[in-house]
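Task 17 of the worksheet. Students: predict the tertiary structure of the chain below and write it out as structure tokens. Keep your answer in the requested format; marks are given for formatting as well as content.
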Amino acid sequence: MQRFNLKDNLVRKIYKTKSGKIWLATGKYGLGEWKNELSPRIDYYLNDPLAISSLSNNNVYDLVADAQDNLWVSTYGGGLNYFNTKTGRATHIDVTNNYWKDLKWIAAVAFGW
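Model answer:
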């Protein structure tokens, strides 16, 4: 775990986007991005109460990518976030605190499910 900087033993989802990037939904350390470089590592995007563009909660429950490879990130207790993978900034979506319901709603609107 230390070799790859895996800080959380509760990984709820490992997700690979169309562009080949690998993301982790963790229970305590937010959103992890696998960096497969000379020394593979995981970079984390966490909640920072003082930063409006951070995740709304570190307890990430689920995630899905859109057509532009940006992520819809569902959190437990923090609602839904739209994460721009190019800038590393999150936008909190005020729908409800019910993360599963939020994700289904976004899927229906964004992907026509």
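Marker's comment: The chain has a mean pLDDT of 83. The first helix runs from residue 99 to 111.
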